[in-house]
């Protein structure tokens, strides 16, 4: 697909070390996201991809292909393949993560919670609430299925306090049921976690985010993920309170652990040392 990458109109992300950073697509197997800065460029890029795929005797599935315009205001765009107009959507799922046209994460977070709710109610009466099943077995399901479902993709989350509360409520609903209590019993969440030897959800998410930050720091400078992350976006900031960013989230986590950004960046170069800093001495490479 080298011809596609060479001929498409790439999306300008920003500048990194005085050099422009561009992105044209994200591809995993046959799941491809094509980026463009305008409706015209997107139509051109899609036509190039369609032409190249046709040469390889492959075909784009029009029914499954969607278009989305990301921005503060909804914009209707007209994109087609061989005369067939593509459906414009407000959100879509890519590799297990829900992306919406606002560029925010609330839709993905809400979908995680809803998936866990469905799982919880599916196994509540037949599994979690069964006294003959040990707490160890119930916690094994929590750690291997329930928690990964709830936190999938959390490495890059930027959470509001409201969303943190919703996620924690979902966490504690399962844990309370494991020990057979309800909110009416007025038992502190910390006591329940201690009894079950379960790490606090927000701490687990923080560890995953710091692990990913360290991984990105160790990436080669030519890696697209690192370039896009470090790119400085041009333009004026909108009025009002500045939005929370992923870098701010990481900065707070580092400060809480007694490290500056510069100190952590230096430490992250050593994978083993960084792993122990994030997860503790029990961390094993």
Mean pLDDT: 92
Q: What is the helical fraction, as a range of percent? A: 40-55%
Rg, nearest Å: 22 Å
Helical segment count? 11
Relative strand content: 5-15%
Q: Could you state the oligomeric state of the chains shown? A: single chain
N- to C-terminal distance: 36 Å
The helix/strand order is HEEEEHEEEEEEHHHHHHHHH
Class computed from helices, strands and strand pairing: alpha+beta
Protein name: Reverse transcriptase domain-containing protein
GO biological process, one term: DNA biosynthetic process
InterPro entries: DNA/RNA_pol_sf (IPR043502), RT_dom (IPR000477)
Pfam family, one: RVT_1
Describe the structure.
The chain is α+β, with helices and mostly antiparallel strands. Helices cover 50% and strands 12% of the residues. It has eleven helices and ten strands. Strand 3 and strand 4 (31-34) form a beta hairpin. The chain starts with a helix and ends in a 6-residue tail after the last helix. The mean pLDDT is 92.
Q: What is the compact description of this entry?
A:
This is Reverse transcriptase domain-containing protein. This protein is of the alpha+beta class and 285 residues long.
